[in-house]
Design the sequence.
């Protein structure tokens, strides 16, 4: 059974429909790239999957064993967030804040997990550093570690390499790919066609008539080249 099944979705806002009749399935271990032009509705789709935006029509089914706490969301970072005056550890462990309930403090297990996630992403040595003093790549690792504290099965990432230089971008892609190989399902919004070709298992191309294919199907039909041309013309 699919982790998430989307059937005949209509995505948009109360006064504007972005697209209709979108159907796709996400299975455990998938690495889905969501691509499309700016303003096509990629982030709107992601927020709808998370329940942050109202679904206009259609049905989203979630596997019975998948809880909200199993799904982590890494949105695009704002300028204000980049200047946040907290330590790396404080930000990472805050990923557990939604699970505290009425407890005022983090548990020993949560503190241990926060450290393990920092070690996994190579930022344990930055534990006591101020977040706003870090490079863009280091900040993204911190936010990813925080997201891992909030989730254990599915990660939704909204253009996580935006603004990073090519070397740091490739490092970050490899980190995410490693998490995917370890069993975490990835759903990523991206404009990076070469990365999709390298890492994706499936591609969801958002247009007014969206398409969902395996990576092999998508590129065998030449869609990647078409999207790259459209993107270049838009820039």
Sequence:
């Amino acid at each position: 059974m699919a982790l998430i099944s989307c059937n005949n979705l209509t995505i948009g806002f109360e006064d504007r429909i972005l697209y209709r009749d979108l159907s796709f399935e996400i299975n455990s271990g998938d690495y889905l790239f969501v691509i499309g032009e700016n303003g096509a509705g990629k982030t709107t789709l992601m927020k709808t999957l998370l329940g942050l935006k109202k679904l206009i029509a259609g049905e989203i089914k979630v596997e019975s064993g998948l809880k909200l706490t199993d799904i982590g969301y890494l949105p695009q970072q704002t300028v204000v967030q980049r200047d946040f005056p907290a330590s790396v550890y404080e930000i990472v462990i805050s990923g557990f804040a939604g699970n505290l309930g009425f407890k005022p403090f983090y548990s020993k297990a949560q503190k241990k997990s926060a450290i393990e996630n920092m070690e996994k992403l190579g930022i344990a040595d930055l534990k006591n550093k101020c977040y706003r003093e870090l490079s863009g790549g280091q900040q993204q690792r911190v936010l990813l570690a925080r997201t891992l504290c909030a989730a254990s099965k599915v990660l939704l990432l909204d253009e996580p390499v935006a603004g990073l230089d090519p070397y740091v971008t490739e490092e970050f892609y490899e980190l995410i790919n490693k998490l995917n190989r370890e069993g975490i399902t990835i759903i990523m919004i991206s404009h990076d066609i070469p990365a999709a070709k390298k890492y994706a298992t499936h591609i969801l191309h958002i247009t007014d008539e969206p398409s969902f294919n395996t990576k092999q199907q998508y590129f065998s039909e030449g869609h990647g080249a078409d999207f790259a041309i459209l993107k270049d013309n838009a820039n």
Q: What stands out?
A: The chain has a mean pLDDT of 88.
